[in-house]
Design the sequence.
């Protein structure tokens, strides 16, 4: 028997069936690949939250009264300041006696003398009145917390009492400045003894939150150091003055910060 070596060609129907099978197999493989791949949303990193705006600060205002000239910087009251003041008063009393008016100049305290500023501390922050620097900053932080709580209360009320959108937005805002100002008092190095030559000086400081005329009386703080020789105050770049100044700020923050919130 003789066999033919010619290669058989598939029929048209066979070729059509084979192509359809390959197409179905390719579609199935693609579907499996897409199912195995993680969704794009899951693969992407979550979007970062937009940071909240920093809360506004309510600052305590530094208020120097008209008669407080020179209160911004440390002043030194020396013996000669008192001697000069006494001599002036004696001269005025003599003049009143000659004129027969019967008037007399009232006495005074050395703590009320203006004194003189120190050239050595002109550009040194340690000589600046704490009420216009460190103390003001520390009390402004307390004021910010107090007024934030007030704002939260006002906003909660506005959201439930039928306030208009404008009124609600106004209630949402914290004031930039506290109602009660910070008023400086004494900021002096005052001689200790009028007689003698001991050269002792005591650092004195005072300040208050609020002012006369308000329904709420001012909240005051005061501080006096131990008397020290002038050379001790000057030593090591006025190091003792820097230490005492830190104590002053801490003392006043404690005293004023402990007052009821309605005094702010």
Sequence:
């Amino acid at each position: 028997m003789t066999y033919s070596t010619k290669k058989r060609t598939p029929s048209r129907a066979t070729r059509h069936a084979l192509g359809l099978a390959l197409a179905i197999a390719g579609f199935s493989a693609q579907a499996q690949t897409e199912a195995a791949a993680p969704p794009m949303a899951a693969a992407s990193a979550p979007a970062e939250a937009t940071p909240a705006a920093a809360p506004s600060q309510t600052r305590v205002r530094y208020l120097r009264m008209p008669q407080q000239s020179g209160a911004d910087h440390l002043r030194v009251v020396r013996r000669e300041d008192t001697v000069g003041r006494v001599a002036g008063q004696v001269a005025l009393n003599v003049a009143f006696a000659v004129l027969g008016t019967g008037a007399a100049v009232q006495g005074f305290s050395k703590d009320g003398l203006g004194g003189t500023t120190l050239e050595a501390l002109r550009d040194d922050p340690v000589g600046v009145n704490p009420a216009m620097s460190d103390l003001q900053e520390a009390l402004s932080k307390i004021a910010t917390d107090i007024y934030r709580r007030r704002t939260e209360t006002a906003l909660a009320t506005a959201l439930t009492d039928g306030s208009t959108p404008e009124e609600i937005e106004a209630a949402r805002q914290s004031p930039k400045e506290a109602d009660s100002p910070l008023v400086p008092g004494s900021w002096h190095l005052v001689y200790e003894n009028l007689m003698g030559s001991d050269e002792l000086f005591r650092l004195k400081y005072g300040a208050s939150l609020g002012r006369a005329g308000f329904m709420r009386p001012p909240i005051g703080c005061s501080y006096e150091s131990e008397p020290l020789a002038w050379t001790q105050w000057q030593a090591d770049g006025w190091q003792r003055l820097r230490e005492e100044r830190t104590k002053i700020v801490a003392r006043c923050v404690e005293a004023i910060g402990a007052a009821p919130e309605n005094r702010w």
Q: What stands out?
A: The helical segments are 12-36, 40-43, 79-99, 134-158, 165-172, 230-257. The chain has a mean pLDDT of 77. The beta strands are 75-77, 116-117, 182-191, 200-209, 219-224, 228-229. The longest helix spans residues 230-257.
